[in-house]
């Protein structure tokens, strides 16, 4: 599958993942989850507002976006369920690979990156939550793109 | 949460506490098995000595929509260091949802020497107990399983149709939105899709997680469960019962509750569930 037009670091990660065995992929994802840094207090403090909460994500994920100088955004995340390790890994990946990318590129990320990263065997409930995280990020990007266009 | 023995379950021996597991980590004749929805949890940290059974890779046939066969189960037991007389202790994420699913699949092969750790991963973690990343290895066992026997605990579509004709009890354990047909599935999940929404006629809507305490993942007491399944929903422990969900995993949790905690005499899990029923031609559906 080609991933034209999406943020380059994410395209590279997907490319790399396509060559990994399942066990290697799991190790990689756990490394990301270990690196996950939740939203700093400067940006948000608990209790987090409901409107930042990702719908249908059972790991209680939250998403924030800050505009950056180059017209892009920095994304912040929180995952309140300590067992939400897939959600943590996905948030860490998104922060690592799409924070700072152009809004157009962020909006071009297809939902099936969830399968590319987590495999086809990801359960529907889990996939739904992960996709919800991406959808929330893209909602911020869409809003910012609308502001720019106005 | 109260002591398991004091909660009034019909078969309290089927549960063990986190304390019990912590005290028996090195006991002979015990194998702790983790089974999760989230495939990253076990490798990121598990109870010392626990092995993993993965619902997709280990319990499902990789070609047909079915469970593993006798040879597959024997191989899984052998590499997990489980002998026929080993007591298997299941635990996992999400209120032991997948642990109950694995427990149920083990019953297809008659491995009744099995228990579930009450509260699962959630309670173990909340109590600050040890989790390790080291994956243990055990000497392979020589496990001789009987042929898989589906009939006692598993229902196929023909069984559900006959059950409907006979006026049997049905429990739909999906979300209220799935039960009503308002919500089908995500478009991005073709594998779990259904063409029609709704539920099997006469099924009672009892979402599976109502059986668990959300704060620590433990099972509710027998009295609390009776209030839900018997008093509120009118199910009888004496009636034949079939539970279903979307692919048969959530309903294995309810199967466990009805069979072991409430002592229902005949409960089967319809693992075809809505992904089969909602795609079948000319079967009755209610909305």
Can you give a write-up of this model?
The complex is a heterodimer of chains A (150) and B (287). Chain A has 150 residues and is mostly helical. Chain A has helices at 8-17, 22-35, 85-98, 103-107, 113-118, 124-149; strands at 61-67, 73-79. Chain A has a two-stranded antiparallel sheet with strand order 1-2. The radius of gyration of chain A is 15 Å and the shape is globular. The mean pLDDT of chain A is 92. Chain B is 31% helix and 11% strand. Chain B has helices at residues 18-23, 41-44, 55-59, 70-79, 93-107, 120-126, 157-165, 176-180, 222-232, 250-261, 273-277; strands spanning 15-16, 30-34, 51-52, 87-91, 114-117, 169-172, 204-205, 241-244, 267-270. The relative contact order of chain B is 0.16. The model of chain B has no long low-confidence stretch (mean pLDDT 95). Chain A binds chain B through residues 22, 26-27, 29-30, 33-34, 58, 82-86, 89, 111-112, 114-115, 118-128, 131, and chain B through 37-41, 43-44, 56-57, 93-94, 121-122, 125, 185-186, 188-189, 191-192, 246, 249.
Task: Produce the secondary structure layout.
The complex is a heterodimer of chains A (150) and B (287).
Chain A: H1 8-17, H2 22-35, E1 61-67, E2 73-79, H3 85-98, H4 103-107, H5 113-118, H6 124-149
Antiparallel strand pairs in A: 1-2
Helix pairs in contact in A: 1-3, 2-3, 3-6
Chain B: E1 15-16, H1 18-23, E2 30-34, H2 41-44, E3 51-52, H3 55-59, H4 70-79, E4 87-91, H5 93-107, E5 114-117, H6 120-126, H7 157-165, E6 169-172, H8 176-180, E7 204-205, H9 222-232, E8 241-244, H10 250-261, E9 267-270, H11 273-277
Parallel strand pairs in B: 1-5, 2-3, 2-4, 4-5, 6-7, 6-8, 8-9
């Amino acid at each position: 599958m080609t991933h034209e037009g999406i943020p380059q670091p994410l395209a590279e990660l997907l490319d790399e993942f396509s060559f990994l065995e399942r066990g290697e992929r799991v190790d990689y994802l756990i490394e990301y989850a270990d690196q996950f840094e939740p939203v700093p207090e400067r940006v948000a403090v608990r209790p987090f507002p409901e409107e930042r909460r990702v719908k249908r994500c059972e790991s209680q994920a939250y998403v924030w976006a800050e505009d950056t100088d180059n017209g892009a955004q920095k994304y912040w995340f929180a995952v309140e369920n300590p067992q939400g390790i897939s959600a943590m890994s996905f948030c860490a990946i998104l922060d690592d690979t799409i924070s700072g990318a152009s809004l157009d590129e962020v909006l071009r990320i297809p939902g099936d990156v969830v399968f590319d990263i987590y495999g086809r065997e990801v359960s529907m409930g889990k996939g739904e939550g992960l996709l919800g995280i991406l959808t929330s990020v893209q909602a911020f990007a869409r809003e910012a793109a609308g502001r720019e266009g106005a | 949460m109260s002591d398991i023995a004091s909660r009034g379950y019909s078969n309290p021996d089927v549960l063990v506490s986190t304390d019990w597991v912590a005290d028996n980590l090195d006991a002979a004749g015990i194998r702790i098995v983790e089974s999760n929805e989230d495939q990253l949890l076990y490798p990121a940290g598990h109870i010392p000595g626990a092995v993993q059974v993965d619902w997709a890779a280990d319990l499902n046939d990789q070609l047909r929509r079915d469970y593993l066969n006798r040879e597959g189960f024997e191989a899984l037991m052998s590499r997990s260091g489980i002998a026929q007389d080993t007591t298997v202790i299941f635990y996992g994420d999400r209120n032991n949802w997948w642990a109950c699913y694995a427990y149920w699949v083990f019953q297809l092969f008659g491995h009744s020497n099995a228990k579930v750790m009450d509260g699962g991963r959630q309670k173990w973690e909340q109590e600050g107990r040890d989790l390790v990343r080291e994956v243990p290895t055990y000497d392979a066992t020589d496990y001789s399983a009987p042929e898989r026997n589906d009939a006692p605990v598993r229902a196929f579509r023909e069984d559900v149709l006959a059950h409907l004709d006979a006026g049997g009890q049905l429990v739909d354990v999906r979300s209220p939105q799935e039960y009503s047909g308002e919500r089908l599935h995500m478009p991005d999940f073709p594998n779990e899709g259904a063409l029609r929404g709704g539920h099997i006629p006469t099924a009672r809507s009892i979402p599976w997680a109502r059986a668990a305490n959300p704060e620590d993942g433990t099972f509710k007491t027998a009295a609390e469960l009776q209030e839900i399944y018997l008093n509120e929903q009118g199910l009888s422990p004496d009636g034949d019962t079939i539970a279903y969900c979307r692919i048969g995993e959530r309903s294995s949790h309810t199967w466990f509750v009805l069979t072991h905690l409430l002592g229902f005499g005949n409960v089967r899990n319809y693992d075809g569930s809505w992904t089969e029923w909602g795609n079948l031609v000319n079967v009755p559906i209610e909305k």
